[in-house]
Amino acid sequence: AFAFKSTVKARRLQSRASEKEQKRLHVPTIDRSTGEPAPFVVVVHGPPK
């Protein structure tokens, strides 16, 4: 019921799936060790009662 009718399409979809998997596995890591602390945030929410 769910078989491919075209071998070219099946090969293309398999290639795309493997490329997506390799891209997911080789995601570059971001260096977040800058040394400075996180910013201090003050949030005021809603009207005063």
Automatic annotation (TrEMBL):
Residues 1-33 are annotated as: Disordered. It comes from the Eukaryota. The lineage of its organism: Eukaryota, Viridiplantae, Streptophyta, Embryophyta, Tracheophyta. This is Uncharacterized protein.
